[in-house]
Amino acid sequence: MSVTEIKEAVTKFSPEELTEFADWFNEFQQNLWDQQIEKDSRAGKLDFLIKQAKRQYREGKCKQL
After folding, report:
1. Which of 8, 25, 44, 63 has the fewest CB atoms within 10 Å, i.e. is most exposed?
2. Does residue 30 form part of some domain?
């Protein structure tokens, strides 16, 4: 099924079906994002953020939540 066919099918959804689809698609996108963050973390791509946070903490630029 092509993206064009999917778009056409979505336009034919009832309001309830559209809500169900939107909820599903949102969760699908969130899962993809979580997987990418996990992959990047394992690869060390986010290490700079940890170093930055630790430096800012040492410099007193952070406050406890």
Report:
1. 63
2. yes
Q: Assign 3-class secondary structure to the chain.
A: CCHHHHHHHHHCCCHHHHHHHHHHHHHHHHHHHHHHHHHHHHCCCCHHHHHHHHHHHHCCCCCCC
Residue 38, token pair as written in the block: 């996990």
Provide the token pair at 21: 């689809």
pLDDT of 13: 98
Burial of 63 (0-12, 13-18, 19+ CB in 10 A): exposed
Residue 14 lies in a domain: yes
User: Number of folded domains in the chain?
Assistant: 1
Q: Is residue 65 part of a domain?
A: no
